Amino acid sequence: MEIKLIGGCEKNELETRIQKVATAGKLSRFAGNVFEVLESCNDYEKNLKLIKRIIGMGHKSIIEHDYLVFAICDVTPIVEQTIIGSRLTSFTIKSRREVDFRNAGFYVPEFRDKNYKEHPKNKELKEKYVAHMKYLFNTYGDIADSGVNVEDARFILPYSFHSNIIMGLNARELEKMINSFLYGPLSKVSELKDMGEKLLAIVKEYIPYLEDSILNYKNESEASFEYMEKLAERPKIKIADKPKLISYTPNPDDVVIKSSIMYHFQCSENEAEEIMKKSEAKDSEYKAKVMDIILHKEERRELEQVNFTFQIPISLSILTHLTRHRMHSLLIPEFTPLWDFKNYIIPATIKAKPEMEKIFIKAHDENIKVFEEFKDIGVAEEDLIYFYIGAQMLNVVTTINGRALQWILRLRCCNKAQWQIRGIAKELAKQASEVAPLLGKGLGSTCVTDLVCYEGKECCGLIDTLLKNAGK
Hints:
8 strands, alpha+beta
């Protein structure tokens, strides 16, 4: 693992960054306009002292003005999935749909026992682990060489493979990330703790106002699920057959339309209800026309007034296609306690080649066998998470407002989207449309909802058929 802060490291850059944060801290309580305050913050040591004092009082919004970009090399998808959970953080990640990963390399943990001490058989376990990982990577290569695209071959890749990431975030989010890696339950995952330590080393050198805050942090959420575990027996994990709409805002179409009336006319909810009824009496298409206007506005805040909660079955390989959309409230099960390794999916392109399907299933079964061997001799669960493979299925829960749902579905219903997330997206659109038919007219790929395609030369061609059928 290697992590570097990109930019902002030279002495003059560091001083400018600190000056911006100090200006934010000084602005609210000092006379003069923002430019005068900025000019007055011209002493690096005084600026640093001021920032430390302010954030020491708990006023940390000022450090959101220090935006940092990191290059992160050779970390696993375990790190990837964890940091993507930081909703105010931006990422660019090497695509497994486009790039062959057979030579990407993989992470080898120092195996520990249940007490997180070095396992007596650590050396022997590492040798067996390395041999097994090479076998899985070779299987991935064999499947790819058979003509199956790497997009589907990756379903046999173990979650030990190396990924590369560009990560951008402000200093407040960075502090939260480091604290969770160093002091929270995530610190039991050696790779995440190592990342926390590397980020802290960067903080000490280039973000000096954060060091004391991080070193003095106290975690109080270690046993967050202990109470639940005492009162309920853990059920067998069952993967849902398809996405399911669990709950939603009642009468979502009417709520969207009435919210538009309320903020435009500055009236009460009862008055908006009356206006909607009277307008509909004059024009039976009133609600449909208003919704169409809302669906095509630049700002669609009215759509944010309604929510849809779904349970979604998805594979680890495709999970990032959902988590990267950060404007929804996504609940992903933690990597431990370990999931049921027998819940997995085989891509249709592999099933279409009986020999490759046989190789895939054999590799998956061998993975379970080696995993269980390690588990049976007392290896810490946090060191076994690298046996997860891309085909592993899990259930996630998310709540999405109407605006975010429209945005996600316009991308994920597209024929260019990966097949599993496309199937999920179309099911979400279908179920949301059943309870919100007017809003539902705006859910789907733009070629279907608006008769327009933004893919340019990479267009799938469906738009031509749709335009022809529409007489355009």
